[in-house]
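hey can u check if this looks right to u? its 340 residues, i copy pasted from the old doc so theres a chance i mangled smth
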Amino acid sequence: MANYHSKFIDNKQEWENFILEKKEANFLQSYNWGQFHKKLGKTIFYLSFWEGEKQIGACLTVKENAKRGKYLTIAGGPIIDWQNENLIEFFTKEVERLAKENDCDFIRMRPQTLETEELKQQIEKLKWQESPMHLTADLTLQLDLTLSEEDLLKQMRKNTRYEVRQAEKMGITVIKSKNPKDIEPFYKHQIELAQKHKFVPFSFDFLDKQFKTFVEDEQVLLFHSYLDKKLLASAFIIFYNGEAVYHYGISTEDNQKLPGAYACQWEAIKEAKNQGMQKYNFWGIAPKDDLNHRFAGVSLFKRGFGGEEVEYLKAHDLAVSSKYYLTKGFELIRKKVRNL
C-alpha cells in the first residue's frame, strides 16, 4: 500500500482549504457542520488522509450516542478519490480503528459520490453493507444555476411556472432573514406539520444551533413568504461551495391553496444565482414509483421545478461489534413503520 497516513486537523482554515477545492464536497463535510454538532454536545473528528506531505482526503466524523448504541457517522463523505482502491481500503481501516478506540458498534457513511454497481461491489468486499436507514439525502434533485432565469422558468412544470407567476400577481412578498430569532416560529410551524403528517420533527436546539453556526459565516438564510402580513411559508437554505441547499421548509395553514411555498423557492433560487452558486439542491426526494412514501407529496412539489435527479451512493454500514445487528433489526422495523 502507498505511503498513507492520517491525522486530525483542528484548524478551520486548513480544513476548509482542502474541502473547498473539491467540487463534490457540500456543507455536510464543512468545518461549520462539525462545529454545529459539537455545540449539540457530540464528539467530532476532523480526520484527514495524506500521502507523504500531500493531503488526499478528508472525513468529518461525528460520534452518535444513541439508546440503541454508539456509532460513528460520516455524512457526505469521506472526500476521497473513489477510483483509488488502496485509498478506500486505507480509509476503511482508519475509521474502523477510530470506532474501536471510541467504543462504537458500527460506522455509517453516505459518501458524496454517485452510486454505481462497481463501487457497491468494491466497498462490500471491505465488509461495508447497505444501511437499513438513510444518512442524509441520497436521491436528490438539482438545478443548474448557470441557466438564465428565463430558461429556469421554461424547464419548470407548467403548473409550477403558473404558481410562481401567480404569487407575483397576488402580491406575495418574500423576505430574507439572518435573524436567529426567526427559528422559534419556524420550529413551531414544523411541529404543527409533524403532527399533521406524522413525522418526527427536529428539535428547536437542533435547528437553532445549526442556523447560528452557519449564519456566523453568512452561509445560511431564511426565506419567508407573506400575503397581507400573514406568513405563508419559510425555507431554510444553506449556501456552501457553489451550492445552495434547500435543507428544511415549512408551510402554514394560511398557505393552503396559496402559492407561498413556490414564491419562497423562486426567491431562494434567484438569490443563489446572485451569490454565484452553480447548483440549487432541493435535497431529498422520494423515488418516483413509490407513491406511498411519506415524502411523495413534497417530492412532487420539488420535481415541478425541473432539474436533474442525482443519486449518491446509499448509506452503508461497517459493523465493528456484534451489537450492530441488534441495531440493524430495530431499524428495519422502524423503516417499515415510518414508510421510509
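The radius of gyration is 20 Å.
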